[in-house]
TrEMBL record:
<dbReference type="InterPro" id="IPR013131">
    <property type="entry name" value="Mannitol_DH_N"/>
</dbReference>
<dbReference type="GO" id="GO:0019592">
    <property type="term" value="P:mannitol catabolic process"/>
</dbReference>
<dbReference type="Pfam" id="PF08125">
    <property type="entry name" value="Mannitol_dh_C"/>
</dbReference>
<feature type="domain" description="Mannitol dehydrogenase N-terminal">
    <location>
        <begin position="30"/>
        <end position="265"/>
    </location>
</feature>
<dbReference type="GO" id="GO:0008926">
    <property type="term" value="F:mannitol-1-phosphate 5-dehydrogenase activity"/>
</dbReference>
<keyword id="KW-0520">NAD</keyword>
<dbReference type="InterPro" id="IPR013118">
    <property type="entry name" value="Mannitol_DH_C"/>
</dbReference>
<dbReference type="InterPro" id="IPR013328">
    <property type="entry name" value="6PGD_dom2"/>
</dbReference>
<protein>
    <submittedName>
        <fullName>Tagaturonate reductase</fullName>
    </submittedName>
</protein>
<dbReference type="GO" id="GO:0005829">
    <property type="term" value="C:cytosol"/>
</dbReference>
<feature type="domain" description="Mannitol dehydrogenase C-terminal">
    <location>
        <begin position="283"/>
        <end position="472"/>
    </location>
</feature>
<dbReference type="Pfam" id="PF01232">
    <property type="entry name" value="Mannitol_dh"/>
</dbReference>
<dbReference type="InterPro" id="IPR000669">
    <property type="entry name" value="Mannitol_DH"/>
</dbReference>
<dbReference type="InterPro" id="IPR008927">
    <property type="entry name" value="6-PGluconate_DH-like_C_sf"/>
</dbReference>
<dbReference type="InterPro" id="IPR036291">
    <property type="entry name" value="NAD(P)-bd_dom_sf"/>
</dbReference>
<keyword id="KW-0560">Oxidoreductase</keyword>
Amino acid sequence: MVRLTKETVKNIQSIHASNKTLIHKELPERAIQFGEGNFLRAYLNWMLEKMNQQGLFNGRTVAIQPTPHGKVVPKLHKQDNLYTTILQGVENGEETQEVEVNSTISRSINPYESWEELLKLAESDSMEFIFSNTTEAGLVHMEEEFPRTSSPLSFPGKLTALLYRRFTHTNGGRGFTIIPCELVEENGSLLKSIVLRIAEDWDLSEDFKKWVDDQNTFCNTLVDRIVPGYPKENSKEWEQKLGYEDVLMAVGEPFHLFVIEADEPLEEKLPFKEAGLNVKWAEVKPYRDLKVSLLNAPHTLLFSVGFLSGLQTVKDVMEDDVVSSYVRSVIYKDILPGLSFDEKEKESFAASVLERFQNPFVKHQLTDLGLNAVQKWKSRVFPLLPKDEMIPDSIALSLASLLHYYRAQTIYEGHFMGSYQGTEYKVRDDQVVLDAFIDFWNKGEQDHGAITSLLSNENLWGRDLSPAADAVWEYFHSIRTKGARNTTAQMLKDTWALENQK
């Protein structure tokens, strides 16, 4: 089968005529992207493609390999930096699918082999933007030597060297707009602080540090789109549909959200909204809180209830009448009313979350959601709960199911394996968490007193949960004797009856 390249595009019938035109259109390089993985290609590059299709951005990016052992750049080279995005999901209650070839990457560079080629990008008058997605581990400070002839290992090191070349080439002229996409709170501010710290390490001038501060814009951002990536399970089927081989196919969901917090107006330079994209030029924190509250917190609450009910994926949960009703109750009854956000927008986001949970094309394993679950409870769920009030029954039920889920069968260094109804799963968390649960289950009888003691452990939970011990004990015992699904059904029935009495 023919491989996707610029030369073969004209003969591939599945590629739309307007798409073919854009692939061969010469557009200037306007951005550098540190990272060439699935997420950035199916998220940022997809957005740039949408703008280019409408003549709004009219630019391409240069993709930089972030680590020495990256495998994407050679594949991009073989495909003339082309690849296919496949977006599948549920929108407005109906299944949707969008397939197109993305041509926004003009070239791709391995800086460990071509360091000077990367630095030369700083001398281009057309370069305005720097994007990145180097994972959370990428936004860290490392002690490195000033890179005279070879690339630093860290992303901030590469960025500092690139900025220094820009500074010297322009004699302190215009810098860059830097938009990191790593899932780190205040990612732009953090990246800027690391760059300035590296400037200190390298004994760079005060003029350069002032230029970094004055002539460059570091934006804080929030990104949101599920991108499973290459469709291993049905890649051959997709190749037959497309009529070509593409080793860089990137599958994602239709939903996307990009919140960008900038100190200066950027809407005209980056007309995302004009292209119809879900981009918010706003303070990031309220949207981060909204996402954590309505997407991440329900994930954390539903995984153990669903798994102990015999389900495997989030989609399975949404197809089960009992557990899906539990999820809706959590979102609409226990979380949504307490959120300080525009009513229409939070209702819309909640509806989009339920559609995302029902996506038939994304297999979101409940056991994956269960990794580091106690830490997720501390960062996602507990901030939603007032400390001086009793926790809702739905939360107590989830907490009780978590206690059952965190039962060790086989213990290893740094994790243990659990087992439920013949399915084995990994439990990974901080060692203090693992030790506490191993001790809890080794004590023999997990009675009311044992549960109260466990819930009062502030080193474990970050707060004293013993006031919830009565409710958690009742649900814990019910799950043990009647099963999680029956317990959930009874909890919903009791809640419904109580609401009708008011």
